[in-house]
């Protein structure tokens, strides 16, 4: 992503992270360091990076953004290894690829991760984020854990959100499930990779080409 989307060398990404976190801390903010696609990186390298940012910049809790395609046993290993090195509050951010966002969030919480990132109805890019209402109800009914949310309000809240314009939620719509959202400052190389992915999804999912587009909010023409 650094090379194809942002056109940044690795050194710039590290330096910018250090400068930004130090600036935020200096101005009285809690600093959550949020490395994108953390679980796709080589683990030791990623942990070295986090420790460097915390040491030379500032970091309160790190937020660990995990890809939703990770399986629960892999997530257990991943979280446990992170805890060995990072002695701070951990936050987990999952996406709902293959429906794994809920399962992985609950796995992370069971291992001591203290904060979960969720959205109403799983609103989020690609296949969506971890849906709040599913996790809240799973914790309450399956594990006896009450997180303090009035569950009688979940249905009215979901109905409200569904009426909002373009909520960026897949909700079972195939066209949205395979919508390609490129990062800011996209390159032709990144767009080419995305188009290859789209071609595969058309073959596998049966979605017609004109149902798939590049997200206009990222400045890419379809």
Describe this structure in words.
By secondary structure, this protein is mostly helical. It folds into two domains: 116 residues, Alpha-Beta Barrel (TIM Barrel), CATH 3.20.20.70; 51 residues, no CATH class. Helix content is 47%, strand content 5%. The chain is built from nine helices and three strands; from the N terminus they run H-H-H-E-H-E-H-E-H-H-H-H. A three-stranded parallel β-sheet has the order 1-2-3, with helices on one face. Helix 5 links the parallel strand 2 and strand 3. The longest helix has 18 residues. It is globular. The chain starts with a helix and ends in a 17-residue tail after the last helix.
Features:
TIM Barrel; 2 domains; 3-stranded parallel sheet; 47% helix; mainly alpha; 3 strands; 9 helices; globular; 222 residues
Number of strands: 3
Strand order of the largest sheet: 1-2-3
- Indicate the CATH class of the largest domain: Alpha Beta
Look at the structure and give the mean pLDDT.
77
Radius of gyration: 19 Å
- What's the story with the biggest beta sheet? 3 strands, parallel
Distance between the termini: 20 Å
**CATH topology tier name of the largest domain:** TIM Barrel
DSSP helix fraction? 40-55%
Secondary structural class: mainly alpha
Low-confidence stretches: 170-174, 180-185, 214-222
**CATH architecture identity of the largest domain:** Alpha-Beta Barrel
Q: Number of domains in the coordinates?
A: 2
- Give the name of the CATH superfamily of the largest domain: Aldolase class I
Number of helices: 9
């Amino acid at each position: 992503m650094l090379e194809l989307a942002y056109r940044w060398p690795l050194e710039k990404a590290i330096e910018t992270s250090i400068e930004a976190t130090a600036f935020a801390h200096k101005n009285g903010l809690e600093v959550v360091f949020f490395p994108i696609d953390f679980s796709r990186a080589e683990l030791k390298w990623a942990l070295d990076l986090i420790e460097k940012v915390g040491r030379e910049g500032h970091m309160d809790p790190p937020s660990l953004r995990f890809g939703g395609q990770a399986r629960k046993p892999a997530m257990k290993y991943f979280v446990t290894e992170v805890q060995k090195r990072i002695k701070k509050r951990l936050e987990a951010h999952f996406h709902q690829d293959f429906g794994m966002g809920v399962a992985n969030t609950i796995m992370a919480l069971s291992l001591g991760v203290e904060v979960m990132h969720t959205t109403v109805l799983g609103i989020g890019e690609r296949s969506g984020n971890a849906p709040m209402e599913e996790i809240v109800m799973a914790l309450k009914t399956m594990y006896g854990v009450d997180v303090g949310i009035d569950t009688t309000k979940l249905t009215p809240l979901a109905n409200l959100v569904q009426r909002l314009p373009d909520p960026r939620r897949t909700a079972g719509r195939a066209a949205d499930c395979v919508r390609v959202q490129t990062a800011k400052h996209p390159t032709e190389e990144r767009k080419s990779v995305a188009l290859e992915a789209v071609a595969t999804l058309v073959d596998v999912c049966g979605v017609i080409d004109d149902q798939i587009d590049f997200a206009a909010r990222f400045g890419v023409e379809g």
